[in-house]
Every structure is written in structure tokens, then in C-alpha cells.
Write a structure and sequence with these properties.
179 residues; two-stranded parallel sheet; two-stranded parallel ribbon
Length: 179
């Protein structure tokens, strides 16, 4: 991602230090900068871990919408087109991975093991702060189902967008779509 200049950089710390690194962030290793000047350096990591709650929620919502569409006769292409047009970005990317079958046939974008590791950190933070994350917890349960699916298949690993396969299985469909 850094080589392609697609990262979102999140520098935090002393304003003078952030100002020195920003020119190397935007347009060089990153596409954008979330400037946390004058914030404690750990704020960037804290923000990143909390943003992962949003990413899992997004993937969970797209997966559920795709399964509902399939089971009620709406063509996957129609939903893919709407998600890409209206929300774009990660909605379109994850929708495409699901509808195309890439979630089970291509190299993972984000490994399920990495996602579950981060999930452990997020759930520990939620517990420590007495915060309920019921939507996130649903995504974590589906991630665990993805890991279990690939353990049985001996394929090793799996992609976070495999949440779609777990939602399909929970909805009495095959984990893999036919794409």
C-alpha cells in the first residue's frame, strides 16, 4: 500500500515533528493525512484500532445486504452497482470481493487471523471501558466462523470479506458463492 501511495497516514505527536513528516506522507506514501498534531503519539494507534470497529461493521452490513438480496431475488450486480455508486470506496471494494467470489478464490486483502488478532485488542478495550459493541461482536462471530470454515477445508487462512461466506452459511446457503 505504501509503495502505491494508498495509505492514510495518521501522524501524532509534537506539532513540529508532525510538520516535518507530513510532506513525506501525502502524495508519497499516502493518499491522505489525518493530522493529529499536538496529540500524544499513541493517539494514532488508538484511532486506528477504533476505526477497525467501523470497517468490520461495514463488511458485516455489505455481507448481510448481499445475502438478503440473493435470497429475495435481487441480482447481486444491482446491489454492487448501488453500493459502488452511492457510497463507493470500501463499500464497492468489499461488495465486489463478495459478489465476484474473490472472498474465497483470491489472496486475502486482510487475513482473518490478523483481523481476529485486532478483534481481541478491540474487545479488551471495550471490556476495560465498559462499552457494548453488539454490532462489532456479530462481525467477530462471523470472523470466527470464517476461520473455522478454512480450518475444516485445510485451505489455511481466509479473508476478512469471508464474513460474507459466514453470513451465507448462517442463512442456510453454501459458504462459497458460485462465482
Amino acid at each position: 500500500m505504501a509503495e502505491a501511495g494508498k495509505l492514510t497516514c495518521v501522524p501524532a505527536g509534537a506539532a513540529t515533528s508532525v510538520a516535518r513528516v507530513k510532506p513525506f506522507c501525502e502524495g508519497v506514501i499516502g493518499r491522505a493525512v489525518v493530522d493529529l498534531s499536538s496529540e500524544e503519539p499513541g493517539t494514532a494507534s488508538h484511532l486506528k484500532i477504533i476505526c477497525n470497529v467501523i470497517v468490520v461493521g461495514l463488511i458485516e452490513a455489505v455481507a448481510e445486504a448481499h445475502v438478503l438480496a440473493e435470497k429475495t431475488g435481487l441480482k447481486s450486480e444491482c446491489l454492487q452497482n448501488a453500493l459502488s455508486t452511492v457510497w463507493g470506496g470500501p463499500y464497492g471494494i468489499y461488495s465486489n470481493r463478495m459478489s465476484s467470489g474473490d472472498y474465497h478464490s483470491k489472496k486475502p486483502l486482510v487475513s482473518i487471523d490478523m483481523a481476529l488478532h485486532i478483534a481481541g485488542d478491540i474487545l479488551a478495550l471495550a471490556k476495560k471501558s465498559d462499552t457494548e459493541l453488539s454490532g462489532y461482536q456479530a462481525g467477530v462471530e462471523h470472523m470466527r466462523a470464517v476461520k473455522e470454515h478454512y480450518a475444516k477445508e485445510s485451505n489455511g487462512g481466509g479473508d476478512i470479506s469471508g464474513i460474507y461466506g459466514a453470513v451465507r452459511a448462517a442463512s442456510r446457503m453454501q459458504f462459497e458463492n458460485s462465482k
